[in-house]
Amino acid sequence: MISKKPIRRREDRSDQTQKRILRAAVREFSTHGLSGARTDRIAESAKVNKALLYYYFKSKQGLYAAAVENVAARVVENALTGFDPKYSAGEMLLRSALNHFDRILTQREFQSLLQQEMIRFRSGKGGSIPVLFRTAFAPLIQKMREAVETGTRTGELCRMDWLQVVYSIFGANVFYFLSAPMMELALPVEPFAPKVLKQRREIAVQFLGSALFTDRVAGAKLADRILCEMPMPRVTNVQARIEDFHARRKTL
Questions:
Q1: For burial by CB atoms within 10 Å, which of 26, 85, 104, 186 has the most?
Q2: Nearest to residue 217, comparing CAs of 226, 227, 228, 206?
Q3: Which residues make beta-bridge pairs with 157?
Q4: What is the C-alpha separation between 202 and 226, in angstroms, rounded?
Q5: Cβ(154)–Cβ(214) under 8 Å?
């Protein structure tokens, strides 16, 4: 009888090789974009022969698409953890809001690739946005819709349009980061100072706790508890990250 162990070992090595390539590709594409990225740098970073990139992913475009889908799947998988059945519908939404704020703050590679794909899609250059929406974002949005509808049905949440809740949660976070350079000119604050970021993160969730819940006191207490359970992640060089975010947006 032929042992299957050598076959499994080869499969494991192949899986590990592909993971290293994808990690290197995500770094390269998020920094230089599709056109500026170099496959030789990816191969060098992954410590593999360049031919393996084409063996596994067929082309540079194929590797790019795989890298975008890989990082998006990981991010959305993390986002979906907030929809654990042990949480009430309202708690799911508040946790989703915090998760999204922290994602913009910490997931530089994902944010960069997502911006690139949205711009390519709007300019008619194709891209991975349709696939990303179907496989990654659609499940997240569906979970949010179910949470709003369940919360209104049980009386925990005010009666409201579910899509407006999605826009309110995601839109507020995105606008904060996009408008920060202008706000810095208009207000006596540094939007990306750690203390200010922490305060804005807390206020955003506390606002939702008061606005969405039929019992505003209970909603506010729930927001405070979740903030204690989900402290802001520690990040370094926030200002440089955000400046890079805006500089990249201008050049795409």
A1: 26
A2: 206
A3: 213
A4: 10
A5: no
3 state DSSP class of 213: strand
For residue 65, what are its two tokens? 């698409």
Q: Per residue of the chain (252 residues), give pLDDT as tens.
A: 455 555 555 556 788 899 999 999 999 998 988 889 999 999 999 999 999 999 999 999 899 989 888 888 888 888 898 999 999 999 999 999 999 999 988 888 888 888 888 887 777 776 777 777 777 788 899 999 999 999 999 999 999 999 999 999 999 999 999 898 888 888 888 888 999 999 999 999 999 999 999 999 999 999 999 999 999 998 765 544 555 545 544 444
This model's pTM is above 0.85: no
Tokens 């939702």 -> residue: 208
- Confirm if 226 and 94 have CB atoms less than 8 A apart: yes
CATH code of the domain made up of 1-58: 1.10.10.60
At which residue do the structure tokens 């991010």 appear? Answer: 75
Helical spans, DSSP H, in 134-161: 138-154
Q: How many helices (H) and strands (E) does the chain have?
A: 12, 0
User: What are the boundaries of each domain within the chain?
Assistant: 1-58, 70-251
Q: Which amino acid is at 156?
A: E
- What distance in Å separates the CA atoms of residue 151 and residue 88, rounded to the nearest whole number? 8
CB 233 within 8 Å of CB 105: yes
CATH number for the domain formed by residue range(s) 70-251: 1.10.357
